[in-house]
Amino acid sequence: MANITLIGRPEAVLTNDVANMISAQTGSTVNKIHPDDFLADRYNADDEFLITYVTTMDRRQAIADKIDADGLARATFIHNSAIVDPTAVINSGTFVGPFCIVAYESVINNDCLVAPYTLVSHRANLGQGTVTNPGAMIAGAVTVGKYCLMGIRSTTVDQIEICDRVQVGPCAFITKTITEPGRYLGSPARRG
Fold it and tell me: What pTM value is reported for the model?
């Protein structure tokens, strides 16, 4: 079995939390590498890679693009307390944290980080590189674009579409389709 290397700030609490979860559940050796070192080719090409809490989306995309360009393997981790419906799809390079629910025919694309207590439900689709913060709720045929950030305890339901590179603030309630990148705050959420 290949080692897993987490790409994120090695001193960051969240990077260490992810490392500890993976190590405890799988018994695998987990390495950590700073994004700057990874982008400068200072990594072991035999490892499998997982992007941790890198929320600067341009940087997150640059890392994912380098993984593709260099033909590197992605690690995927689903915490043993998460509930994943057999009809759901979780693509490579994704971390699904504790107490998450990924329900009926939902899709989580490559390189997503799904934080604890997130709900991705009923044909929801998370685009590549999207990050959810704890307690985000995404349900009801919602489509979230690439490299989005869904705020802690934010809610998006009922056939909403969110374009690429949107940041949804904490506790925001998305009631309408979002067609322009940017930051959206409040309930109902507005561009801020």
Answer: 0.95
